[in-house]
Amino acid sequence: MRIFILLPIALLLALTLISCTSEMTVTETVQVTQTVNQTETIMVTETQTIVIPPIGQVLDISIEPAPGNYLVKKILLESVSVTVGTYGQAHLVTHTPGDPCLVVSGTMTNEDDTAWQIAFYATGYKSNGISVSGTLDSGFLVGRLSLIIPAKSSSNFTIHLSWNEDVHHIRLYSSRYSAEVPLP
Q1: How many Cα atoms within 13 Å fall on the side-chain side of residue 36?
Q2: With contact defined as beta carbons under 8 Å apart, do 121 and 104 qualify?
Q3: Low-confidence ranges of the chain (pLDDT < 50)
Q4: How many of the other CB atoms lie within 10 Å of CB of 35?
Q5: Euclidean distance between the first and final Cα of the chain, in Å?
Q6: Which among 74, 107, 118, 152 is most buried, taking Cβ atoms within 10 Å?
Q7: Pairing assessment for the beta strands 131-134 and 116-125 based on DSSP bridges
C-alpha cells in the first residue's frame, strides 16, 4: 500500500517582487514521502504568484471606527484611507525595507480643551474575523505608535501594516493619555 504524505518543510523567504508587474513569487518546498518496503524522499518545489496592486493604489478596505466617529473620548477620526505601499523602516526583524505593506493614513482631531497623547495601532482582519495583518511600526512599544495632539487641533497619522491580500477590514485601536507626561 502506498502512502503519500505532504509535509511543508519551509516557506522559503525568497519572495521576489517584480516591480514592473507588481507580482510577488512565493516558493515553497514540500517533502513528499512514499512508503513501499523502503522509504524514499523526493523534494518538490511549488511556485505561487500573488499579484500586488500598484504602489499608491487606494484599496477598498473598510476601517473601524469609520471616519466621523470617535477613536476615544473627544478624539475624532476625521479621515482615513488604505493604500498599497512599501515598508521603509527596519524596526521589526520579520520585515525589511521595500517589503509591500498596507498603509493606513488619516487625520485625528482633538476636540477637547486639553492636549492628549494618543497611543494607537491597527489590525487587519479577513471577512471571517481572523486577524491576518498587524502594525509594523514601532513607537514607545513594538507595534504601537503615539501622537500628541494639542487642544482644539488636528494631526495626521500613518500606520504600516503587514501585507496580506485577504484583509477585508482594518480596526484602529487607541487609548489616550495626558500629554503632560509623554509616553517613553
Answers
A1: 4
A2: no
A3: 1-23, 25-29
A4: 12
A5: 63
A6: 118
A7: antiparallel
- The CATH number of domain 62-178, selected from 3.50.30.30, 2.60.40.3230, 3.40.50.620, 3.90.850.10: 2.60.40.3230
For 9, counting Cβ atoms within 10 Å of its Cβ (0-12 exposed, 13-18 middle, 19+ buried), the class is exposed
In sequence order, the β-bridge partners of residue 29 are 10, 45
User: Residue 4's closest CA among 44, 56, 64?
Assistant: 44
Per-residue pLDDT, 72: 94
Q: Apex CA 8: angle with CA 48 and CA 97, to 5°? A: 55
Closest CA to 159 of 123, 131, 128: 123
Peptide bond between residue 65 and the one before it cis (omega within 30 degrees of 0):
yes
Cell of 130: 481572523
